[in-house]
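Sanity check. The docking grid for adenosine-5'-diphosphate depends on where the pocket ends up, so I'm generating a full predicted complex first rather than guessing from homology. Inputs follow.
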Amino acid sequence: MKILFVSAEVAPFSKAGGLADVAGSLPQALTSYVSSMHVITPLYGQIDRQLFSIIPAGINGEVVLDKEVIPYTIFHQANVNSKVQTWFIESEQFFTRPGIYTKPNGQGFDDNNLRYFFFQLVVLDLIERQLLSVDILHCNDHHTGLLPGLLKANGIKIRTIFTIHNFLYHGHFSVEESKILPKLLLSSLSMTQWNNYSALLEGIDHADAINTVSPGYAQALLLGENLDEHSHEHILSAQHKFSGIVNGIDTDYWNPETDTYTSVPFSLNKLDGKLRNKLELLQSNGLDVNMKAPLFGSISRLVENKGFPLIVDLLDDFVAKGAQFIFLGSGDEEIAKQLSKASQRHPGKIAFIDGFNEALAHLIEAGSDIFLMPSRFEPCGLNQLYSLRYGTIPIVHKTGGLSDTVQDWKTGQGTGFVFEPYKLEQLHKAMNRAFDVFKMKSEWTDLIRRAMSQDFSWDRSARHYIRIYKT
Ligand code: ADP
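Predicted complex below; grid placement will be based on this.
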């Protein structure tokens, strides 16, 4: 089987969230089962071409977008020691600017619809010109949702799988904007109740197989949780081709024993290194050095559904109890303001780092005691998996992938603290429980050991994807 994996973000080249991590590690895990694995993604301005040895592949072309002819150039990595071949699409008009989806001020680019429609047209062009030999096209999220329909509309008999990493983002085209889409596609393009065309629903309607990134989230979507009626109808009519496969993680890149971003390695049998990471984390972020105080960590896009409305209301209370907090995140300005104010109210107790910082993300995983991830909903979630691997005990809401991957603590059992329903009082109770267990030294060490013994490597999930490819 020859697979082409299409994604708007691919780690380590470009990353805004979990999609990048999956696009960077799942294809790698699939290589043992397929004859060729290619990944294609935009060449954004901030991608370091020199660092990754990204050079022109000798392929140029052009596509017609809204009656305008737009050129593209294909790049690839030279001298890669990887079975995955990654292709990059360069376009002065759409991708060379810095930023993946947003400007430096966090606002989305006005032409995102055009940019990702262009991305998909280039993929289609490369397939039509037979420059990429493909049996199965693996599309991811709304940025690639039009491809299954585009292939059909152009009579190309390549099978498609569409993976939904987050149902929140549709890729909406207004009726006016949709005029740039080919007529053939438009006749079948899925409308939402807001009178917009949805690239996400289009992917659901036309792909040969669909999956989302955990069985729990698949179930939630089938039940229509957090969904408008229209979207729910589309999901239900695709039920026969719909499944949930939990994400794995790159266990080499997220490995406390070999992590190149942290200075002190640690493991299940050598846990003292974790404390030295905590010390470094406290010191380098202006937090009081109090090793006995539980340190709650958080790494997240700052958006409402990651649970911030609950978290910010509990900070004063838990600081008064002696807890410390470190938040790393960027996104919503209002949430950033609230975290920033909390850190000013409690200097030395709460640190907020506004921005995207890969190295600090690794140190927070390594040095925190407890990881806060009370998402209102969560398709899979990766940070709770990294946290388990680094012995940083997650507090999660019982939803989607979080409930599939974290088991609630009871004496001698469990890997984290799970609460429901999504209410302030319930999160408060879960944090209190974590606080109490943290003080019971041997119980806490056992909990860390159980967390670190969990296996979230890709292998089992990769085999599940292979079964879908074969079908
Ligand atoms: P989502 O995809 O909804 O953002 P996930 O938990 O699935 O959530 O994945 C988020 C990924 O992005 C993780 O690898 C996380 O470490 C990373 N991440 C999020 N925000 C930041 C940040 N501010 N700095 C560094 N890494 C971040």
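Relevant for the grid: The longest strand covers residues 54-65.
Also worth noting: The chain has 16 helices and 17 strands.
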